[in-house]
Amino acid sequence: MRQLLAGLEKNSTDQGASSIVHRIQNHQEWLHAKSVLMYSSIQTEIDLTALMHRCLDTEKELYLPRFNSSDGTYEAAHIQSMQSDLEIGHFDILEPKLSCPTIPISEIEMILVPGLAFDQKGHRLGRGKGYFDKMLKNTGSVILGIALDEQMVEEVPVEKHDIRAHFLVTPTRWIQCSVGS
Prior knowledge:
The protein has a single domain (2-176), classed as Rossmann fold (3-Layer(aba) Sandwich), CATH 3.40.50.10420. Helices cover 23% and strands 25% of the residues. The chain has helices spanning 2-7, 10-25, 28-32, 49-56, 131-136, and strands at 35-37, 61-68, 73-79, 86-88, 94-96, 102-103, 110-113, 117-118, 124-125, 142-146, 167-169, 174-176. The strands form three sheets. Strands 6-3-2-1-7-10-11-12 form an eight-stranded mixed β-sheet. The longest helix has 16 residues, at 10-25. The chain starts with a helix and ends in a 5-residue tail after the last strand. 37% of the residues are buried.
């Protein structure tokens, strides 16, 4: 999957991101959420910067993960400006500055997560460190998996600690994940 994603043309992934942003911002789940946790994308992940800007232009509260070096986990930090509230953090990923306040993940209504691959049941193949699963284990939030259609597979290997997405959003589909394990 890493090779497939690395081989995709930037124009294709940019178009995919644009379609995903459009699909999300017009869906009822998004419209009802007042607080949203997104992610700062790395090279092969869907870039949600346009959705972040739209979020900041509305009444929604926007949160991004920030690495907490004291316990090796990520926490949800509130941002109000893409220009002044972000800096390069852990793994060379943009994250909120230490001056940005945090809230318990359980207080966020919607969480958007990237992955290498997803299946119809909402199982997600991450990058192997389990950071998102650790962050999501104590939340009742609606979880959206964000992926290109090429990242949808028949079955993702699952471990006990893996957290499933409730919905998957691709450039062509909004998928409500099946309830079976």
